[in-house]
Structure prediction request, 100 residues.
Amino acid sequence: MMLAVPFLAQAEQMPEFHIIIKNHKFQPAEVVVPANTKVKLIVENQDATPEEFESHEMHREKIIAGNKTAKILIGPLKPGKYPFFGEFNQDTAQGMVIAE
Prediction:
C-alpha cells in the first residue's frame, strides 16, 4: 500500500486537459500538451451514445459511455503530433494531441 500512495499523489499533480465529445466530434479537436511529461486527458462524452477514444500512436483505447467522463493517462510523449479518433464515429470524431 505504501507504493500506491506516491503514485496517486503523482497522478493528481499531472497537468489535465479537457476534451468534450459532442455531436460525435471532439472539442477541441487539437490539444497541445507539454512534451516529455505525463498528462491526464479528461474526456467528457456529452452524447447519449458511447464512443471509443482510440489512438494507435499513443497506444490508448477506452470506451466512454454516453453522458459519462473518463480519465486517460498519456505520455510522456516526444515532441510531435499524435492523432486520435472515435472508433464508433470515425468520419466525424477526429482529433490530435500535439506535444511541444
Remarks:
- The chain has a mean pLDDT of 92.
- Residues 40 and 73 are 5 Å apart (CA to CA).
- The domain at 13-99 is CATH 2.60.40.420 (Immunoglobulin-like).
- The first helix runs from residue 4 to 12.
